């Protein structure tokens, strides 16, 4: 039975245990999502041998698929945490050299509250961390990891 997704119970609105401060950080989000992913994969594994002989292949596949989606979101939050911490250099232009973001529209971002970080919701291959010596590898395919 499905419930109304817009209804929030008191348990759902109590998020204090998820964060150390007044607001959740990207690092905290990544950590929580990682734990949720692990739990979903454990449930899928346990569902392979239920106490009652019932075919749960569809449920197991759904749990694993959901875990993969949660992992992608966790990785995205981890990348955002690294960007905010200054560990990942951001590119200021498109590969053609044209500026991106509001600069491409000749508007001043400060008028709109300062710089923004925008992630695309696309599936990509895993990104390798930036090593001090990248000369033996080809150029990175991730714009966030390419130096300007």
- Averaged pLDDT, please? 76
Biggest sheet layout: none
> What value does the Rg take, in angstroms?
20 Å
Strand-residue proportion: under 5%
- What is the H/E string? HHH
Number of strands: 0
Contiguous runs where pLDDT drops below 50 for at least 5 residues: 122-148
Q: Estimate the helix proportion, in percent.
A: 25-40%
**What is the count of DSSP helices, taking H or I runs of 4+ residues?**
3
* Class computed from helices, strands and strand pairing: mainly alpha
Q: What is the rounded distance between the termini?
A: 52 Å
The outline comes out as extended
How does the SSE layout of this entry go?
Elements: H1 10-13, H2 26-46, H3 57-84
Helix pairs in contact: 2-3
Q: What does this 3D model show about the protein?
A:
The chain is extended. The chain is mainly alpha-helical. Helices cover 36% and strands 0% of the residues. Helix 2 (26-46) runs antiparallel to helix 3. It has three helices and no strands. Among the domains are: 23-88; 90-113 and 139-148, no CATH class.
Can you give keywords for this protein?
0% strand, 36% helix, 148 residues, mainly alpha, disordered C terminus
């Amino acid at each position: 039975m499905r419930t109304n997704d817009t209804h929030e119970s008191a348990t759902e609105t109590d998020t204090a245990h998820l964060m150390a401060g007044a607001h959740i950080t990207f690092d905290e989000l990544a950590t929580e999502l990682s734990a949720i992913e692990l739990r979903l994969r454990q449930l899928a594994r346990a569902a392979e041998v239920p106490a009652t002989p019932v075919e749960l292949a569809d449920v197991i596949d759904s749990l694993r698929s959901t875990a993969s989606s949660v992992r992608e979101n966790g990785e995205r939050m981890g990348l955002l945490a690294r960007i905010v911490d200054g560990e990942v250099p951001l590119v200021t232009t498109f590969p053609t050299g044209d500026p991106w973001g509001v600069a491409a529209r000749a508007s001043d971002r400060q008028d709109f509250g300062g710089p923004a970080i925008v992630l695309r919701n696309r599936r990509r291959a895993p990104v390798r961390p930036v090593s001090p010596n990248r000369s033996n590898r080809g150029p990175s395919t991730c714009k966030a990891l390419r130096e300007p």
